[in-house]
Amino acid sequence: MTVRRTVLKSAFAAVGMAVLGMSAAAADELDTLKEKGVIRIAMSGAYPPFNFVNDENQVVGFDPAVGAEIASRMGLEVEIVTTAWDGIIGGLLANKYDAIVGSMTITEERDEVVDFVGPYYSDKRAIFTKPGSGIASLEDLEGKKVGLTLGETHEDWARERGYSINTYKGLPELLLELENGRVDAIVNDSIAAILAMTAKEQEFEMFGDPTTEPFGAGIAIREGNPELAAEMQKALDSMMEDGTYVELAMKWIGADIR
User: Fold this and answer.
1) What torsion do the CA atoms of 216, 103, 6, 176 make, to the nearest 10 degrees?
2) What is the pTM of this model?
3) For the chain, how big is the Rg over CA atoms in Å?
4) What is the pLDDT of residue 27?
5) Could you tell me if 185 and 178 are in contact, meaning their C-beta atoms sit under 8 angstroms apart?
6) Looking at the DSSP assignment, which residues form a beta bridge with residue 1?
7) Are strands 59-60 and 46-47 parallel, antiparallel or unpaired?
8) How would residue 2 be classed by pLDDT, with cut points 50, 70 and 90?
9) Could you give the CA distance from residue 166 to residue 133 in angstroms, rounded to a whole number?
């Protein structure tokens, strides 16, 4: 799931500098988490099947499953926090939670502000339309209304290309807007959109973005915590090696997406 560099370089600048300055002199956060016995992980809760709220009002999906497994292997309990995607890095820098396990694309701009563990899966940008739309290329999007999730890097990409856009809170709203014809196309990470539309039997056509390479989704933590990063990476590596990762991926995604 992909935050715009304009957000990172402006809205987070002040808090980012303050937090980064403190982290250089502070002890690694791993010891603090071990003492508390709990790690708080954040996600939007609006990105099925990676993370979403079920009928029992529980946050479930591939992301919380991966986060909980990593926490367990570190000897920690997990607390899931849901928050708006466009402010999720700001919340991490403000110590509202300890990590982001929410399908966050690893980018150079984000890496200037946070550290990443992973990647724990790979995906690619895709454009989705209703059947018979006549939209089959990036050039066909010119003059059309394009829907995107607010704060994702897809939004920055669409603005740079000069498309006419509408922004929404998450994938469920995007699918509804496309279905009701309020946008001509939506842009999203391919796996989540394909699975969500298939699950709701929503007909669609799609094509990949030829201008970008596949990207990795990582776990974001505050900078200056090499021991925490190493411990989380060790837990992630071990679950990939012993088959647990594939089991979770098959349960929630239906495929090995490493």
Assistant:
1) 120
2) 0.77
3) 18
4) 74
5) yes
6) none
7) unpaired
8) low
9) 18
Do 205 and 8 meet the contact criterion of CB atoms below 8 Å apart? no
Is residue 258 within 8 Å of 121, Cβ to Cβ?
Answer: yes
The strand pair at 46-47 and 51-53 is best described as antiparallel
Tell the residue number behind the tokens 């990063």, with chain if given: 229
| 57 to 38, 71, 79, 155: CA distances (angstroms) | 21, 22, 15, 29
Rounded to whole angstroms, the Cα distance separating 208 from 193 reads: 12
pLDDT digits (tens, 9 = 90+) for 117-134: 999 999 999 999 999 999
Report residue 127 as tokens. 């454009």
For the chain, what is the HEC assignment? Answer: CCCCHHHHHHCCHHHHHHHHHHHHHCCCHHHHHHHHCEEEEEECCEECCCEEECCCCCEECHHHHHHHHHHHHCCCEEEEEECCHHHHHHHHHCCCCCEEEEEEECCHHHHCCEEEEEEEEEECEEEEECCCCCCCCCHHHCCCEEEEECCCHHHHHHHHCCCEEEEECCHHHHHHHHHCCCCCEEEEEHHHHHHHHHHCCCCCEEEECCCCCCEEEEEEEECCCHHHHHHHHHHHHHHHHCCHHHHHHHHHCCCCCC
- Given a contact cutoff of 8 angstroms between Cβ atoms, the answer to whether 118 and 230 are in contact is no
Tokens read off for 242 = 């012993």
